[in-house]
Amino acid sequence: MKDQTTQTSVAKKRIDPRNSVNITKKKIGKIQNEIRQYYDKNGYLSWSEKKRKYVILGTNTPVNGLVECPDCHIGKLLIIRSRQTKKRFVGCSNYHNGCRASSPLVQRGMICATKISCKICLWPIIFQRYSRKQKWARQCSNIRCTSRTKS
Predict the structure, then answer these.
(1) For residue 44, what are the contacts with CB-CB under 8 A and spacing of at least 6?
(2) How far from 27 is each of 14, 21, 22, 32, 39, CA to CA, in Å?
(3) Strands of 124-129's sheet, edge to edge?
(4) Which site in 11, 29, 46, 106 is 20 to 30 Å from 84, CA atoms measured?
(5) What is the model's pLDDT at position 8?
(6) What averages of pLDDT result for each successive group of 10 residues across the chain (151 residues)?
């Protein structure tokens, strides 16, 4: 008899220690609601070490993005000026999450970036000229594109 009563009391203690299961369910529910507000229609949630928070990739595209990145298909290619060297280049907005798509640009002269993609490599087309007397030259922003060697 004693064995049965002690077993049932031990079982009760294991089942009901201050509703610990309900507390964890509440915490999980809060975290799920927090994460759910960051999701978009086609978004991907990724941890950013630099920003120390979750970042949505895919749908939160930058306003000044030119075309979709042909390497990662998540970020957008945009014109960036380096803070350290002050040089211009085309790079992916998904750089901090692993995409290394980049290409240098002409450092002097005027550049006009378009949202038209190259038919060969899918990088954006840019117009450039060195002085006002010159005509605008149209070419692909990707330095490794075969269309640049033809023209």
Answers:
(1) 56, 57, 58, 74
(2) 21, 10, 9, 9, 19
(3) 110-117, 124-129, 137-140
(4) 46
(5) 53
(6) 54 55 70 62 65 63 77 85 89 83 88 87 89 88 83 48
